[in-house]
Design goal:
By secondary structure, this protein is an alpha/beta fold. The chain has 3 domains: about 5-110 and about 240-310, FAD/NAD(P)-binding domain (3-Layer(bba) Sandwich), CATH 3.50.50.60; about 125-235, FAD/NAD(P)-binding domain; about 325-405, FAD/NAD-linked reductase, C-terminal dimerisation domain (Enolase-like, domain 1), CATH 3.30.390. The protein contains 9 helices and 26 strands. It has helices spanning about 10-20, 65-70, 130-140, 155-165, 185-195, 245-250, 295-310, 375-385, 390-395; strands spanning about 5, 30-35, 70-75, 80-85, 90, 95-100, 100-105, 110, 125, 145-150, 170-175, 200-205, 210-215, 215-225, 230, 235, 240, 260, 270-275, 280, 285-290, 320-325, 330-335, 340-345, 355-360, 365-370. The strands form 7 sheets. The chain has a 5-stranded parallel β-sheet. Strand 24 and strand 25 (about 355-360) form a beta hairpin. Helix 1 (about 10-20) packs parallel to helix 7. The radius of gyration is 22 Å and the shape is globular. It binds flavin-adenine dinucleotide. The site of flavin-adenine dinucleotide (FAD) has 36 residues, from helix 1, strand 2, helix 7 and strand 22.
């Protein structure tokens, strides 16, 4: 019988493998992942796992029984070193060679690292996997100082978790505002206010230049402007880079991710790619994009599974994302880039619940919903529907959310 190999054992793989069975694949399915764990939920790492409310056992994306029932095999703690497309085989770092009929690349992404002086000191961490969290937890301590380098989602979520654990937390962000790469100024202002209300110090427009310490452990974070911050723990969150090297070396087309079509197919008819590593065309926004989110990995994996089975089920889902910080549940529907108008619903300056609607040429393209699950659901429908919206109605709290849909 035929063999489908999936490289990477995380969100995309945990969807792709069972979806293959649903689409009718009756051959062998083998998932190869370099982490030593069965696929687990990554988002809680910076949230409930870091703060100790959840541990590794709570994180499994699917129960072992589901994989067993679907006859899905795993090889964990194992890295794929290269792919030989001419022979339809791949080589593991231990030298073992495996043959495939179909191949799925779910290699995800890894943290962007910095090469500043002192970065090798103990107490300085990145945050991408379960091992990272366990390492960070060893340096957590009530009343101790934590410095977060980078004010993106990971940095801010980590700051909130460490604050909850009783640390003094400072966030250092190079850009003039936090979340600058992904959101509008309104949301940045809001998160800056809530973090300072909670006692987190946020410094923007400041560039970290290095780290000092003694006995091999970090003690200070130094900045380009001469300021320094005491630190018992440093977490660096300055973005991620897609794992495309395997694909690139195998001659697949790579450009800000492994280039795939709307059905997750690469330029090799026997190879698909899905998740953080894949660059796909989005019909709704009419451009190519590489998204870094769980819903993207999951939905794209379904399209990839169908393609492997010779069916066309294009990935057309509306992008969405979430972030949890303190008591704030942010849900983002759609993508806001290119907006020409922002409409605010609710009191974003004094409360912890509001919506920022992003419009382009009179139509809703995105919404940031803070503790507003109803508006989030409605926004998804409004964006997908593509009809013109009335800004004044969106802002009017006397109109119930469900009446905002035409
Ligand atoms: P990944 O999860 O990156 O997994 C890829 C796997 O493949 C990794 O285990 C990698 O080691 C392995 N691999 C790579 N190359 C090889 C190889 N050659 N051989 C073997 N194995 C290989 N998303 C949200 O939507 N909401 C959130 O709130 C959110 N919070 C997050 C918080 C944190 C701390 C982090 C780190 C991420 C968060 N994300 C969140 C992003 C989300 O986790 C990712 O988008 C998602 O994990 C992508 O899944 P993936 O399967 O594409 O890749």
């Amino acid at each position: 019988s035929k063999t489908c190999i999936i490289i990477g054992a995380s969100h995309a793989a945990a969807q792709l493998a069972p979806s293959l069975r649903q689409e009718g694949w009756d051959g062998k399915i083998l998932v190869i992942g370099d982490e030593p764990y069965m696929p687990y939920h990554r988002p809680p790492l910076s949230k409930a796992v870091l703060s100790g409310e959840k541990d590794a056992d709570d994180l499994l994306i699917r129960a072992q029984a589901l994989y067993d029932k679907n006859d899905i095999e795993f090889k964990l703690g194992t890295r794929v070193a290269n792919i030989n497309r001419a022979h339809k085989s791949l080589t593991l770092t231990n030298g073992e060679v495996l043959n495939y009929d179909k191949l799925a690349l779910c290699t995800g992404s890894r943290v962007r690292t910095v090469s500043l002086p002192g970065v090798e000191l103990e107490g300085i961490h990145y945050l991408r996997d379960l091992k990272d969290v366990h390492d960070i937890q060893k340096d957590v301590g009530e009343g101790k100082n934590a410095v977060i380098v980078g004010g993106g989602y990971i940095g801010l979520e980590t700051a909130a978790s460490l604050k909850k654990m009783g640390m003094n937390v400072t966030v250092l962000e190079m850009a003039p505002r936090v979340l600058a790469r992904v959101t509008a100024p309104e949301l940045s202002e809001f998160y800056t206010r809530v973090h300072s209300d909670e006692g987190v110090v946020i410094k923007t427009g400041i560039a970290v230049s290095g780290f000092d310490g003694s006995n091999g452990h970090v003690e200070k974070v130094t900045c380009g402007d001469g300021t320094a911050f005491d630190a018992d723990l440093v977490v660096i969150g300055v973005g991620i880079v897609p794992n495309v090297e395997l694909a690139e070396a195998a001659g697949l087309t790579v450009e800000n991710g492994i280039v795939v079509d709307e059905c997750a197919r690469t330029n090799d008819p026997d190879i698909v790619a899905a998740g953080d590593c894949a660059n796909h065309p989005n019909e709704l926004y009419n451009e190519r994009m590489r998204l870094e989110s769980v819903p993207n990995a999951t939905e794209q994996a379904k399209a990839a599974a169908a393609s492997i089975c010779g069916k066309e089920k294009p990935y057309q889902a509306l992008p969405w994302f979430w972030s949890d910080q303190f008591d704030l549940k942010l849900q983002i529907a759609g993508l806001s880039q290119g907006y020409d108008q922002v409409v605010i619903r609710g009191d974003k300056d004094n409360s912890r619940s509001f919506v920022a609607f992003y419009l382009k040429e009179g139509k809703l393209i995105s919404a940031d919903c803070v503790n507003r699950p109803q508006e989030f659901m409605i926004s998804k429908r409004l964006i997908a529907g593509g009809a013109a919206v009335e800004p004044a109605r969106l802002a009017d709290e006397s109109i119930p959310p469900k009446e905002l849909v035409p």
